[in-house]
Amino acid sequence: MRILVALGGNALLRRGQPADAATQRRNVEAAAVGLAELAADHELVVTHGNGPQVGLLALQSESYRSVAPYPLDVLGAESEGMVGHLLELALRNLMPGREVVTVLTETVVDPDDPAFEDPTKPIGPVYSAAEAARLRAERGWVLGRDGDRYRRVVPSPEPRAISELRPLRLLIDAGVLVICAGGGGIPVTLGADGRLRGVEGVVDKDLTAALLARRLDADLLLMLTDVDAVHLAWGTDHDRPLREAEADQLRTMTFAAGSMGPKVDAACRFVDATGRIAAIGALADAAAIVRGEAGTRVGPVAAGAR
After folding, report:
1. Strands 121-127 and 106-108, sheet pairing
2. What is the longest distance spanned by two Cα atoms in the chain?
3. What global pTM score does this model have?
4. H helices within 17-71, ranges in order?
5. What are the residue boundaries of the structural domains of the chain, listed by start?
6. CA 71 to CA 211: how far, in whole Å?
7. Active-site residue numbers?
8. What's the mean per-residue pLDDT of the chain?
9. What is the reported pLDDT for 141?
10. Secondary structure (3-state) at 97
11. pLDDT at residue 306 in the model
12. Domain 2-112+158-218, what fold?
């Protein structure tokens, strides 16, 4: 079975953890164990988030005042290479002899996408209200609420196409485990002159994963994060995990825009377009989710939500 696996950025760098290389390496190595288990029986294509990482790179870029801050497409490429490198090392060490390749991937977006006028994608660390006010004044950033704290938010245009689709297919058909479209891919626009240009934004990783899963004819879209399933009434006394659902059913519900919302949207898009299954759950439960023993499975027809 061909599985498109989307690793959440927060699953690789958890809330409250220091954003240093050693911490990320440990988390990636732990994630790779579950991926290697799946790769023993299935054909994997791996994507990953980059919210914490690209935010960190943006802060580092801002601190060097001798040059203008690097644009988000360049920072996205850096983060894609960084996380891809760590994943590739970990997977190669767990699967000696298996070919693993990281592909820097460009995602084509519409230059007139309304998202450029309405930043919503959270990146980087969380800040207190006082810190958020200072950053707004000093750097002109847009900051949005994240629980009782704040995070920088940037434009998140819709993914329209994957530039490297043909070479990705060639690698996958040759039996290579491919890591690609990290952080939703490097956002670019295609001009009337046929030239690609990087743009200021971060494409949602889950929406790109759904598009990529469709274009690569994946049998399953598997989105792994730091929670065990899609939950109903999250954070209340009536909180409960949803183990199985139809795409049409999920579309009638509301989920947090900065976390579970994009995953549910991506799952529904993939199911609607292919009639196949999407699943959402915890990174540690990856194999169990594929077996249907954990997480939330989303399909065109469910046996019934429970």
Report:
1. unpaired
2. 60
3. 0.88
4. 21-39, 51-63
5. 2-112+158-218
6. 25
7. 9-10, 121, 205, 263
8. 90
9. 87
10. coil
11. 41
12. Carbamate kinase (3.40.1160)
